[in-house]
Amino acid sequence: MNLRSLIRHETLLALLLVIVLIVLSFQSDRFFTVDNLLNQGRLMTEIGLIAIAMTFVIATGGIDLSVGSILGLTAILTGVFWQNVGLPLPVAATAAIAAGTFAGFVNGVIITRFRVPPLIATLATLALYRGLAEGISQARSVRGYPEWFYVLGQKDVLGVPTQLWILLLAAVVASIILAYTTWGRTVYAVGSNEVASRFSGLSVEKTKLALYTASGFAAAVAAVIFVSRVSTTRSDMGTGIELDAITAVVLGGTSIFGGRGTIIGTIIGLCLIQALKNGLSLAGIKGDGTIMLIGAVLILAILASNLFERSGTRT
Amino acid sequence: MMTTTVEATARSRAAPQRPGFFKRLFAEYGQEIVVLAAIVVLFAVVTMVNPRFISANNLTTIFSGNAYIAVAAIGMAMVIVTGNIDVSVGALIGVLATISGSLAVAGYPIWFAWLAPVLVGMAVNAIIGILVAYARIPSIVVTLGALSILRGGLISVTGGTWITDLPPDYLIAQKQILGLPVPLVFMVVLTLLAAFWMRYTAFGRSLYAVGGNAEAALATGIPIARRTVAVFVIHGAFAGLATILFATQLQVIQSTVPPNLELTVITAAVIGGVSILGGSGTVIGSTLATILFATIGSALIFVNVSAYWLRAVIGLLILATVLADMLRRRGRS
């Protein structure tokens, strides 16, 4: 039954995506062009990386609200390590990513060691990490990165935006891990029934610790790409991105209670949101109208899939 | 090691026989007491460093400037007690403030401009509550969607412009009752009413039952779905009341609310002792937690901590409170 409802939600969503793409391409002839679509891929990479890691986290029944703050902190550290500390940029970026990953690890420790519910733990670190970013930056922004750094966020490799390759790679690897490895199945097991997983000898705590660390890592990598794309670092980068990522994940069919969800669903959800954002703005609808529509789509998609699922289980 | 364990067991066995007043008080209001103690200590320390901290002016800033957060946190605490959550309240307050201010400027009676946000808040949250209770969509999903809808709606309606020329009579948050600032009175009265209601009425107690054990609640005849809708509607009313304070505290109404307002409200409820898992916590705790945050914010300025580090320190303190709470709970069980 689980597998069936999974297929249902994602097929439904893919269908919706196709309809949206068709409708939008009729609205504006600039929408369905290779250039525009690739550019949209560029724009959704940061949320995408975070959403992929978030899929794992939510599949275990957890949540990570601090990713936006980790993104901001990593971005600031990249700039500070490079300009103020004087490290070479590759070293600075690596060190910043390590720091962001560590921030995720701290989330994991708070959640697994102290048994703080993930929502609260990451709510607290959301404030803490953003605060650190603000404190370290003192409201200064760092600009003037070397030209080669922009390859990551503004240039193409083989005709496709560089970061889209990264997102693609991350999506493929994550799908394989989640669907086909023991470790991936552990994620579902923890999400469906944590106590039973523990009694079955699965290392629940280790899995969770690894996931929150991975979530921090994803946010940190997204931060460096973000900096490269917009050519500057600011402490408020990534504010609210956690809600965008969660929206994509939930829209993609991952149950907020855990135990269910796929990477492909998240990616479809992500594409749907980005297509709506872009297509509607090309059709002359302002960004605010689009935000409203995304909210409505989120509620309606879950409502529809709930109804399908219920009728499915009853017959 | 061995002896302490034995002693501890002996003590915990002896405890139920004659629980002292303070022990009972601490068992029931542990988190509230911790937060209150933190506020008292903070006040004492900062006042020693800088006596102007307890000047009437600063106290007004601390209490009145944040009263709207405390009022919103009352409704949030109730929602969380039933095992739900609402991440859209910040956007809702923004929308309600614009509605209220527009009515006041358009020349509608002042009382109507105050009543409208309460009624609209209740209506909006009734829809959210129905989606949660009857369509069975998790509250975090519904309110995430509502957050987008409300935020987008606010910007497209206002276009980012501020509402100015508010009639002086409308600005209730700047007035006084019996020499006390209105927001302070609002905060205290609403907190006490809500606390009493949750503690001593059958309806109030049933919220804990819904959040604590939904199946058992259903078995005892509590209509869970209806209670869920009701709690969201009440939460909407408190959001409306919070809006009145928020909208009238300045001479203008901006088309934005403080960023992450919903998270501030949730954090206040949770730090005040409301279990995020539902089933426990009080609104006295959420109001105290709001005051604690405001005190911390103000204290940092008075001890000359750079404003840029403000959020980091608040984050650290939130984390410390949460960890202390977890350790305390573990020690008790």
Automatic annotation (TrEMBL), chain A:
Subcellular localization(s) per the UniProt record: Cell membrane
Membrane-related topology note: Multi-pass membrane protein
Pfam families reported for this sequence: BPD_transp_2
Domain of life: Bacteria
Transmembrane stretches, start-end: 49-82, 89-110, 116-133, 164-183, 209-227, 248-277, 289-308
InterPro entries to which the protein is assigned, alphabetical: ABC_transp_permease
Record's keyword terms, sorted: Cell inner membrane, Cell membrane, Membrane, Transmembrane, Transmembrane helix, Transport
Subunit structure comment from the entry: The complex is composed of two ATP-binding proteins (LsrA), two transmembrane proteins (LsrC and LsrD) and a solute-binding protein (LsrB).
Task performed by this protein: Part of the ABC transporter complex LsrABCD involved in autoinducer 2 (AI-2) import. Probably responsible for the translocation of the substrate across the membrane.
Name assigned to this protein: Autoinducer 2 import system permease protein LsrD
Organism: Aminobacter carboxidus
From TrEMBL, chain B:
InterPro entries: ABC_transp_permease
Membrane topology, from the record: Multi-pass membrane protein
Domain of life: Bacteria
GO cellular component: plasma membrane
Keyword terms: Cell inner membrane, Cell membrane, Membrane, Transmembrane, Transmembrane helix, Transport
Pfam family, one: BPD_transp_2
Transmembrane segments: 33-50, 62-82, 89-108, 114-134, 141-164, 176-198, 229-248, 260-277, 308-327
Predominant place of localization: membrane
Subcellular location: Cell membrane
A molecular-function term among this protein's GO annotations: transmembrane transporter activity
Quaternary structure and interacting proteins, as annotated: The complex is composed of two ATP-binding proteins (LsrA), two transmembrane proteins (LsrC and LsrD) and a solute-binding protein (LsrB).
Functional note: Part of the ABC transporter complex LsrABCD involved in autoinducer 2 (AI-2) import. Probably responsible for the translocation of the substrate across the membrane.
The protein's name in its UniProt record: Autoinducer 2 import system permease protein LsrC
Organism field: Aminobacter carboxidus
